[in-house]
Records
---
Amino acid sequence: MSSSLVLVANAGDSSISTFRVTDAGLERLAVTAGTTGCSNFAVDVDRGLVYASVKADDDNPDAGILTLALDRETGALTPLSRVALPGGAMNYLSLTRQGSVLLGAAYSGGYGIVCAVGDDGVVSAPTAEVRFPRLHSVLASGDGRHAYFVSLETDLIAQYALGDDLSLSALDPATADAPAGSGPRHLAFSDDERTVYVLTEFTGEVLRFRRDPASGILDFVDATPAHDPSEKLRHSVIDEDPRENHYVWGADIHLTDGVVWASERTASTLAALRIDADGSLSAPTGFAATEEQPRGFAVSDDRALLVAAGERSTTVSLYRVDGADLHLQGRYETGRGANWVRFA
């Protein structure tokens, strides 16, 4: 196994756990408190910096983004700076342009942001903002030229050119539509970035969009179910309880070599969908039971390992990836409400 670190946000405890990956599994090095309500973060591995979305607390009237320094030996995270977000906390943060730009999407606030990041890790006030109902995620292309914001409520991906001055200019068309009522949530690029895969929350499907690398424009192609049919889950209805109603509840998506992985929270499964030569997806080869209510999971850089967290669990599961199969290596204590995972 690799010698990387794994960070896990425990929203119920307002903490982030740091694990080391060893030949024996995961070794918990530290648990850093004080990350109020943190449910997502972005990691700049090269600079050893972590950018965590935090909610308002007794000392801070506004939500914000907290910059923390990661000690790779002890696993400790030390706060360095904080930028306030009066519009509300981010549900998703991602980095681009070698860590010099931070993107964010706010679900409750219904806005997305672009921020500059200084050499010292200080995050600027937003240089650009966009507004769509219930934005759930945002990623930039590998070259940092295009940014994609996903709106769960309005079933679309807003597509932009990201300028040198960190402005956002809408592409033509300005949005790529997802199927009505599907609830697009998280997205992932194919290795060549000619395909974008989007997991839907309400239908539990992986949507496939064709991407023009030059223009950045997305075109919807097709959808492949990514939830277990034996569970007989029903189409979700916005603002209704998925568990109580036995609804589909898609969450997170990541790629390994030749496989798209997708989590579903009601049945607590990870689905494996093989990627065909043309970028299309085969029906899931199987569904691995995992931590209860798996909102977040992550894949190691070498794509050999997968770590999954569960919102209704206090442990994380470590798997060895073997094609479209997962082999459980162990389960490890982390904290309450674990919902975001990243390798570092």
Note: Helices lie at 242-245.
---
Amino acid sequence: MLSEQSFELIELVAKLGSFTSAANHLNKVPSAISYAVKQIEEEIGVELFERHHRSVSLTEAGEHFVSHAKSVMASIVELKQSTLDINKGWRPALAIAIDGIVREDGISHLIRAFYQRFTDVELRIYREQVNGCWQALSEQRCQLAIGPSSNIPVGGPFEFRKLAQLQWKFVVGAKHPLAEVAHISLADLVDYPAVCVSDTASDYPRYRRGVAPGQRAMSVPDWIRAINCVKDGLGVGLLPAHLIDPFLANGSLIEKTCELTQADSESLLVWDRNVQNEAMTWLVDYLSSDQRLVNSWFLAN
């Protein structure tokens, strides 16, 4: 049976160009190398080398064999390591950071589809806010991120695709004093806290969306709490349309025209291109092609 040593031997002979040189490298006699190569050729059923007087050269079949040997050897090493890991109770895993801007609807569908497709790979999914996904990617705490903004604060080996275009609306609670103001100026905002989501990234300048000059901020852990704070009249804020449209429809939030605005922004799918395996390829393709899943994350109910 072909072994890792078989691949290494063929590659060495091809590199050095003779059985004698390979024998000297391995501290063996040339006849032992010649015999071992002949056994490999007989097992495969083709000649890998043309024999010359003092040297050898690869046949066309031999060139094909050598060109694929490295990837096969890498697979053998990976298989050995994964088998040892599983024996110790470890399994291959992919970590996914999901930006808080992404609604939780549909995440269970992603998990179910992944676990049906891969029986030996674990998913680790957790939430980040604002620039948190980018820091998680740069620190290699995750291999893929769903929903970070297109305001890319880090460099690195990252590929990305646009998932959605986000709209931002300035809103107040139905019973808030500013609900009666036709057009809200920046001066009007100074007396009321701006509700914003805390940035989970610690290594980048803190980014607080929707805070006017001179206005106090009220930082909360996630968008659900931000929405509730605005609904309860504790503050005002620029909030993502796909999360608040149901509350606008039932009247608990009111959209207002305001001097403080936020341009539309893109929400991205980002992954580390250095992570090349079947599970990563499947995830990127799945998340890029399932528009219903994406809509469940970025469109209002």
Note: Residues 135 and 295 are 26 Å apart (CA to CA).
---
Amino acid sequence: MNTQITTQLPIPPHYHLEKVSEVWRVPYQQRAAEAQAWAKEHNIKSASTDKSRVCLLLIDVQNTFCIPDFELFVGGKSGTGAVNDNRRLCEFIYRNLGVITTIVPTMDTHTAMQIFHPIFWVNAKGEHPTPAASSITPADIEKGIWKVNPAVAFSLGYDYEFLEKHAYHYVKQLTENGKYPLTVWFYHSMLGGIGHALVSSVEEAIFFHCITRDSQTQFEIKGDNPLTENYSVLRPEVLSGVDKKPIAQKNTRLIQQLLEFDAVIIAGQAKSHCVAWTIDDLLTEIQQIDAKLAKKIYLLEDCTSPVVVRGVVDYTEQADAAFERFAAAGMHVVKSTEVISFF
């Protein structure tokens, strides 16, 4: 296969870059009519006719991560990272409507009582950890600095002794597997809340693609298991509990599907966490099958930013190191404005 994006489309007149940082309702019926007219005007064919199938995998492009003043806004070094990323992402989608076969947005999906939220943990005074500033290690549990909040056991339907053993096993597994320590985050991506929704401008672009190309958007839910983190859409951070029984599963269906595409383009938030871990898991699968498959993967480096909390944490170095490793493995690190050749 040797397919090249040689003709990029214009940006539709409904798109306004200044609205990317805002939350608003997408006028679906109006956009649908405009999308059908746009397809006719620019001779955009149905995705079913694509000889080369291209997937755009969008990691957690949700209000909770991408809108200033929301729970876990990914500002990156600039302080406006996710907003700028999504402006470029929207324009990338519109310019390349004719070659993107399928768009797969992942949806980080949480409830309050999960292992990475404050209510799950208490200290001797009954206080909860400070979000974003607290990491919980095996030593913290051994010393009694933090323990599982007894009050959550009943609501979650678990025996408290089991939850205690699971929590200790869990943080040990993170350490042994070379993962980040368990970070206690602000409540975010709450199911049913406005933070869970896609960024309005990106949702609009995705919907426009769906109608223009007759291509159903494929949403992937992740992160709803209360006993494990799920940065990657392909697998949770820890698969088995202290009793050796599975607590979660790999998303083998999506892994297989992604590897069947001729090309997979990846963007989203955050570069240092959910994006990096998703790519890392995909690379692991690729290397177990055929290392040459890495050439199918394209990373939009200007449509993703690392987690940076000024004065607290800065994951820029880790994110950049991960992308360098992915490039060394054969993946393509590109910019959204480039003319991309798929081989």
Note: The first strand starts at residue 3 and ends at 4.
---
Amino acid sequence: MELQENASRIGTELSIRKGKIGFVAGVEIQVNMFRGSSSFNADGNLSGGFLNIQASQTQQVFGNRLGYLGIDLDKYGTLTIGKQWSVYRDISSYTDRFNVFGSRASATFVGGTDGGENGTGRADQSIIYRNQIGPLHFGGQIQARAGNNNRFIDGFGLSTQLEIMQDFFFGTAYNRAFLSKNTITGGKILGLSGHPTYITLGTKYMGKKIDFSMIYAFQKSGDFAQGFYIDPQSGEVKPTVVFDAKGIEIFGKYKFDKIAILAGYNHYAPIIGHISNVFGQLPVHKNFKRNDFIVGIAYQPLKFVQFYSEQRISTGKNAVGEQEKSVFTLGMKIDVSKKFNKVVLL
């Protein structure tokens, strides 16, 4: 039994408009008052470097989730810079609708991070353009993080969404991050065979009574875990192991007046056939996978207050072959958001 926070956050977005041009600034801070030793909400992780395993992370009271500036060009789209939600997540978020669980098979929050460095989640140091032409929504993204490779940019992403009919969407996204040549060819990272690449396809329907969404994701050299093998001389070794994977997520919700019933499924299957044995041992377990069945119920007695319960039944194993936890949660959420509009005559 453990008491946790569930990715609590506070933020604001300011938009100042002059004619058809608007200027945007946004910030969102995560609040960690009593998070506990573990977190079951994938969205609750903060920035972490790709290929950088941290067995434990000291949580400060406040953590940076988002921070960006931008310009709104009306029908010509918006351009924003900073740490912000990626275009890849424009699609992978279709199924990220649970209060606690989910989003473990979309290759968004890779390696226990917020997907910032590789640009799949809250993309670090990114420049993003989004626009809509009729039923077509599209976006483009580049990252400019540092001079740690021989490329002008450090990654890019693209997404498109088509509103086939009211409240029914189909979308796809592509993201690629660039690593240095020495990192890929140096042979120090087990399983790394190229630049991290991510593809996702999804569909969603959001109706008055029923919500349904599904995504398929594929990533190559885009996720990592802490493996294990025995060195005959030095003993136990826990290396960083990069792997490919395929994933599928399904989400469904039925809405009554004040009660909603939720159900879903996450399956994430690492592809490890190309990972070499070390001293005759595979550094990740042969049955390494995520396989989660999720059910839940939410009750909203007031506009801003919600009580919820979710159960995750996990039948998968982690990278070292340990059975993943099945978890039951009870929670309360106060979600207050308000838009204010003030006209100033100059």
Note: The mean pLDDT is 91.
